[in-house]
């Protein structure tokens, strides 16, 4: 008995000719490349990623990229330069005055201007720039930009003595930095958050904030000024609460970093604090041995005038 033959109703529909197959493959490949390129550009030129690049890499990106990518690279490069020299940071920002900025980049620029002005003591300029950043600070902005703006607002409030308000700004900035996975901004915000806590007399919590900041040292570029400043400040706070051996451990790491970057004036300050801690531990001879070589260091007059009583 002949078995009934079942018709395959889909056979005609599933047959694909060579030309159709080639078209599908090309289309799929093109879409995959477009997606990979979009992801790559997002990862490479996000503020969170740019914050982790050194000045040389940022300069290369600024020279070779175009459009928004170039603007972002120039903004972060100006941020990096400002940590070495306020004038260089401002000059780098001025180059962007003729660029058409989107809202994210404009708020970042205003926040950066505010932060540089606060640190250089130009309070009228700081208030103006921070007001501009605050006016456009919305949840729709890039989270890294929000974190940068909140950090600047916190710095201004701290300098003006509004410590509770400053602490609120830093907490908001930390939330934004977590959302952006911006680990460099987490370092910055935890470090800066310690200042209003110190001013409020909450020393243990301030030290804990600095210690949290220290966990992110590994994400900073090798030419960053920030580790030496953090380690010094952590040593200073340990000394303030009488933990002088812990202070010496932090100072030692700070001096190693400052020596690598060639920061003569900050090295001078750190070693005087080391001598104070040795004296407090009952070892004045070691304190003297620490201080004697400093008398042989020649510090130029402009540098001498800028040495603060405490590490900035």
Would you mind describing this structure in some detail?
The protein is mainly α and 312 residues long. 74% of the residues lie in helices and 0% in strands. The protein has 17 helices and no strands. The chain is globular. Mean pLDDT is 83; it is low at 1-15, 19-44 and 299-312.
What's a quick, concise take on this entry?
By secondary structure, this protein is mainly α. The chain has 17 helices and no strands.
Provide the fold topology.
Elements: H1 11-14, H2 18-45, H3 47-50, H4 55-64, H5 67-82, H6 86-94, H7 103-120, H8 123-135, H9 143-159, H10 163-180, H11 183-199, H12 203-214, H13 226-240, H14 244-261, H15 264-280, H16 284-291, H17 301-306
Helix pairs in contact: 4-5, 5-6, 5-7, 6-7, 7-8, 7-9, 8-9, 9-10, 9-11, 10-11, 11-12, 12-13, 13-14, 14-15, 15-16
């Amino acid at each position: 008995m002949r078995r009934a033959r079942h018709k395959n109703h889909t056979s005609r529909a599933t047959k694909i000719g060579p030309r159709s197959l080639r078209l599908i493959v090309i289309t799929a490949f093109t879409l995959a490349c477009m997606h990979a390129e979009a992801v790559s550009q997002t990862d490479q030129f996000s503020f969170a990623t740019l914050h982790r690049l050194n000045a040389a890499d940022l300069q290369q990106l600024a020279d070779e990229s175009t459009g928004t990518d170039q603007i972002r690279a120039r903004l972060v490069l100006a941020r990096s330069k400002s940590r070495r020299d306020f004038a260089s940071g401002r000059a780098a920002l001025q180059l962007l005055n003729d660029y058409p900025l989107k809202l994210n980049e404009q708020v970042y620029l205003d926040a950066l201007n505010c932060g540089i002005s606060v640190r250089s003591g130009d309070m009228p300029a700081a208030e103006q720039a921070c007001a501009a950043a605050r006016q456009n600070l919305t949840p729709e902005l890039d989270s890294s930009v929000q974190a940068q703006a909140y950090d600047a607002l916190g710095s201004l409030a701290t300098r003006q003595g509004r410590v509770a308000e400053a602490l609120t700004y830093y907490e908001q900035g930390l939330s934004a930095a977590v959302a952006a996975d911006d680990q460099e901004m987490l370092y910055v915000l935890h470090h800066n958050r310690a200042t209003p806590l110190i001013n409020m007399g909450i020393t243990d919590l301030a030290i804990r904030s600095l210690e949290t900041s220290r966990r992110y040292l590994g994400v900073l570029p090798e030419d960053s000024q920030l580790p030496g400043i953090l380690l010094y400040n952590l040593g200073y706070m340990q000394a303030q609460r009488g933990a002088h051996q812990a202070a010496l451990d932090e100072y030692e790491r700070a001096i190693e970093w400052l020596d690598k970057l060639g920061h003569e004036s900050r090295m001078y300050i750190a070693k005087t604090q080391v001598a104070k801690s040795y004296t407090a531990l009952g070892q004045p001879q070691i304190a003297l041995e620490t201080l004697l070589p400093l008398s042989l260091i020649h510090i130029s007059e402009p540098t001498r005038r800028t040495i603060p009583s405490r590490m900035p």
